[in-house]
Amino acid sequence: MKKSVLQRFNALAGLITIFSIIGAHQLVAQTVWLDQLDLNAATQGYGTPGKNRSIDRKPITIAGKTFQRGFSTHAVSSLQVLLEGKANSFSAQVGIDDEVTGHEPAVEFELYGDGKKLWSSGIMRLGDAARPCSVTLIGVQKLELVVTDGGNGNYYDHADWADAKFETTGGAALSTYNPISGEPYILTPKPPASPRINGSSVFGVRPGSPFLFRIPATGERPMLFSANELPAGLKLDEKTGIITGKLLKEGTYVVTLGAKNAKGKADKKLRIVCGNRIALTPPMGWNSWNCFAGEVSADKVKRAAAAMIKSDLVNHGWTYINIDDFWQNHRDPKDSTIRGQLRDDRGNIVPNARFGNMKELADYVHNAGLKIGLYSSPGPWTCGGCAGSYGFEKQDAERYALWEFDYLKYDWCSYGGVIDGMPNNDPYKISSLSYKGGNNLNAAVRPFKIMGAYLRQQPRDIVFSLCQYGMSDVWKWGDSVGGNCWRTTNDITDTWTSVKNIALEQDKAAAWAKPGNWNDPDMLVVGTVGWGNPHPSKLKPDEQYLHISLWCLFSAPLLIGCDMEKLDDFTLNLLTNDEVIAVDQDPLGRQATCKQTIGDLRIYVKEMEDGSHAVGFCNLGLERATLSYKDFDKLGIYGKQQVRDLWRQKNIAHIDGNNKELAITVPAHGVLLYKFSGVK
Ligand code: GAL
Fold it and tell me: Considering its fold, how many domains does the chain have in total?
């Protein structure tokens, strides 16, 4: 068909217009600096992403060379950039920032285009000159910038993508994104107004020790409590549900607890085991460190205890109020509130001015039916530089008992210096030297054995929590020194990397978990945390569901680390699902292990006392996992089963020999926590 002159003219004009649009907006090469994009989409192992400044917010400097622009991050780090084929190339100068001089960081920078590795720096150490990175990106939709921990952990891994920029055609709008959803959503239904008795169904106490147990029951108040067949020596306050007294004879006493209100009544059996062992289920409570760190005070501790009651957490079994470091005086006191005598003339430890009367504080907490804990180090100094117990172990154990404390966290800290014969005048240096006697089992065990023995001599039950980050396979000998729980890994932070890496380390210790002995992957990082610098946990909602689910599957001590006065609905909901908590508090005391891995999906299974199995389908990947699951024999689950979703508190399916498939969708970095119970 012939075109008219006008048609030809219009077509030509159109072409010219199109060409000029392209010419103006797309054909001209343009630089887009990485720092012009939103860097907060990055996930990283510590701190927050830096724009044109280092992690410590200084000028970016690599091996003496300063850079004006760049993205600074902390391993392990990932930043996703959406290119949609609009970028031609990416270049940067990468290296470790000079601000960490004196430490031994190592990292590797990597670039992935649509999941394929495009470039890597090789391992880089402090002082290495910046390495140039340059890749072409024609056709690439997504670019991921990764910094690994270089294989030696992520301590002081301050990594810089300096002078990082894209060449695009026509200033295309690139953007960063985080594939994990940030929208909080609530899964757990509210407890009914009628009574429901929660918490563990077994409780250990030693003969002669003061007994304190507050019946955890949700439901409308007023509520009237009862306890049938309470053994002689114990008495119940019907109004508060607090049981106190003393048992003198060893034995197992099965008591029927009851709770009644205007809406109905409930009962539950509690097995009281009076014998040698305590902490028959993992301790649950709060600890001051992850939120207040060095700023803790008696007032803050009291307020945390009051919030434990007011928030109703107490009615789900949360019990301990634990003071961490900084209740003692400090050796280098710039702050007058922690300045003063470390010990009195008789060698007794002196609480700092923020605390004063420890017995009065313990009474306050006990009166609410809660328990109270504190913290020390077997070394001369705690990790924060306050007075430790070295040389005063007996006296300290006696003091804690005199003040009526129920829990001691005993943290290695400066003890490494004692072994090495180091001068003890710099607590920070000594603690960073860490433990040189790694293959000297005696040296590792000794300080805990000493304190464990003194605690046992006290006329009360004091839970003994060992904190030495898993050295010398503590899970193998922690019980022999009287330990009730022990940290298996290093300090947690509120990042995905931290929670994930800690979780991946737990299986090795699983076989040693049992009633009275718990592997401790560290405290919870949900709610407002921040070690003195409060902020909402950086974990995304799905990551928080996964964190709590895993800790419950692990039979971990559950110690809330947030500001108890700032509990939002989402956090409260996370911490009050009684069916989830029951996984943690199961009296059999097994620790889940990963039984199967399908891509990024790890399936953890925990055997429960009633023969059921708690199963966590844990998605560590960045994509949602959707599958039809049928390998139940790999999980040790056979025959007809009812499947219950514990977060939603709903039965969701039956599986049997003929119909074994279960459709599963697990959000990225999220979890499905199911219970499989055999049905006849
Ligand atoms: C660390 C310990 C933390 C906290 C801190 C106090 O060693 O792992 O949980 O107790 O010391 O200084």
Answer: 4
